[in-house]
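CORE FACILITY INTAKE
Project code: CF-77B
Contact: R.S. (postdoc)
Sample description: multi-component assembly, two entities in total
Requested service: structural model of the whole complex
Turnaround: standard
Below are the sequence entries exactly as provided by the requester. Do not edit them.
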Amino acid sequence: MSRSSNVAARIFNREIRTPPPGTSVHSAREFYENIVPGHTIYDIECPDHLFRKFTDDGQFLVSFSRNHQELIVYRPRWLSFSCTGDDCSHDLPPKAKRFESFFTQLYCVTLASSNELICKDFFLYMENNRFAIFATSTTPPIHDAPELEGAIPGVPLVEKITFHLLRLEDGDILDKKVFHNDFVNLTHNMGVFLYDDLLAIVSLRFQTIHILQIRESGNLVDVRAIGLFCREDDELFLNSNAQYMAVSDKTPVLQWTGVSIDPDLHRRPTSRDSTFLTGLKQRLLSFVFRGIWNEESDDSLRIQSLKKKFYFHFQDYVDLIIWKVQFLDRHHLLIKFGSVDGGVSRNADHHPAFFAVYNMETTEIVAFYQNSSEELYNFFEQFCDHFHVASGHPLYMRFISSHSNNIHALEQLKSIKCKADSSTQMLQFVKKMLGSVAYSCQSQSPSPYFDQSLFRFDEKLISANDRHRQSTDHPIKFITRRRPYTLKFKIKPGPEAGNADNRARKISFLFHPSLPLALSIQLTPYLQPSVNIHFRR
Amino acid sequence: MDSLFGDWPSFDPHNFSHFRPSDPSNPSVSAICPVSLPPYRVKNSTFHCQKMTPTTYCPTHSRTLPPSDQIITTEAKNILIRNFYGRGEEKLRPKRAAAQLLDADHGSKQPRPCDPVIELID
C-alpha cells in the first residue's frame, strides 16, 4: 500500500487505520511534512528585547529586556485577519505583519536589582507546574579572588548569584536561592541540571553539588550537598568524633561548621599538614584503588600496578575538580571531572576529563572512565537517549532525534567514525564525541522540524541545539527524507535582500515546539537585532 | 437490527453477521468457523439470545506457558545504569580467588535470585 504524501489522504488514513503500537508521536509528526513554516516576514518590527526561548510546551515565549533586568513573557498565538473582496490570495495586510499579531505580552517582571543582571543564557522550565527558573548575578566575576577556606584557587568569584523560581502564568516569584561569593557556570545551563523536580547546582568554587527539590507549592528545598560530605549526617559524625581527627589550622571541616572546638584539646602534634580530602574525592580514589587492586591476584604485582597506575598519578586525581553534573535518574549522577583550567573555559576539549557515575543514596561511585574510554563511547553510541534524560511530559520531549533513536543520525555518526582509520584518529573521535556527554539540560528544541526522519538540513547552519550560529546569506533548506525528496521550506535569516556588508553576525533560531512558527534573530554588533518570523501562511 | 453494535452506522451491515445468532430460538447453533491453523483447535462458541461471544482459540500444548511461579517486576534502573553497574562489578570482582580481599562484601559474585524473576525493562 503506497503511502500518499497528500494531507487529505493522510487524514483519511488516520481515520480508518491503526498505526503500529507506540508510534503515536511519529504518526502525528508525519503531518509536519505537510504543514511547514514556509512564509517569512522579514525584519519585523518588534520590541527591543532579547528573545530567549519558547517553553517546551509552547505556552510561553521568554525574553529579557535589553538592560538584562526585566523578564517579559509573551503568549504565542496565531495571527488572524480578514480581508474584503473576493481575492484573498494577496500578501498579508500590513496590520497583520506585526509582532503583536503573533505574540501577546502577558507581563513584565523585574528580576534583577540595580547592581545585578539577569543571565540571559540561563533558563529552565518545569512543564507540569509551569514553573521557570532564572538566574541573576552581580557582575563582573572577580578573577584572582582572594583564597577562602574551602574554595579552590583559579575559579572566579561572583558576589551574589540568585536563582529565582517563578510561576510563568502570572509572573509570581515563588522562591529564591542565593549563593554568596561563589561561582556557578550559568552559560547555556551548564552548571545546573533539572530532572523532574530535582535541581542540581554545581558550585565550582566550593566544589559542591547542591541538590534541591522544587515542591508543588513553589518552594525550593535543600535535599543534600555533595562534595565535602556525602551523607547528610557525615558532618555531625565527624564533629562528634573530632578528638580522633588529626586537625590543623586549615581544616575546612571545623571552620565551616562554626562549632567552637578547643584547638588545643584536639590537635595532635603532627609533622605535616593533614587535611581531609572531600568525601566525594575519597569515594572516587577508593573506587580507583579497588579497581586496580582487584586486577591482579599476586600481591607484588598488585603493588607494582598500584605504583604505576595509582600513586604515580595520585596528585592528579586529587587535583581533579567537578566541572559538570547531570542526573541519569533520580538516584544517579554523572559527574564530569577535570583540571581547574578547563572548568571555567568555554572550550575544554583539549583538557583531559573524567566521568564518574555516583549513586546519591548509597554514596558509592559506580563507574569511572576517562574521556578517551571506548567502553564509555560504546555506551554513548548505544544508549544516547539515556544520557539525554528528559522528563516524560510532554511526550514529544522523548523524541528529539539522536543517534540512538534515528537511523539517519546513526548513519551520519558511523560515517564519521569510519573515517577514523588509525588508533590516534579513533582516540580523537572518541574524545570529541564524549565531549558532549554531561549534557546541558533543555538545550535542544523538541520541534518536529528538527526530526531527522522527516527532514534533512545542514546541521552546521541550523540544528536542535540552541547555540548561536554563524550567519549565512543563503536560505537554509529543509528537504524531506522520504520520497519524493522535495524541498519543503526554507529558513532565511537576516534581511530579505541579504546583508550589505560582510560583518560576522550570529544567528539564533527559536522554533515553537508544536506550531509551524519560528523566529530567526540575526545579531549584529552595536545594532538592534533583525528578527524574521517564519510561519505557515 | 439485533447486532452487537446496535444501530451504529457501518459500511456493510453484514460484516458482523457471524456475531449475530442465526437462529435466536436455537441456542446451540454454531457460528461460522474461521480457518483454524494447527496447533490450535477451535472451540465452537454457542450463541444465546443476548450473549454473543466470538470464537476463541485454545493452545493444544503447554510449551509456551509461563512458569507458574513467575513474577514480573519492573527494573528500577534503566539499561545504561545497569551496564555501568555491570562493568563496575566486573572491575571490583577479583580475577582469581585471592587470599586477601580488600572488601569481603564486594569479593563474591552477586547471588542469583532463587525464583525465576523476569524483569520488565523500562
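Facility notes:
- Chain B has a mean pLDDT of 63.
- The beta strands of chain B are 41-43, 56-58, 71-74, 117-120.
Invoice: internal transfer
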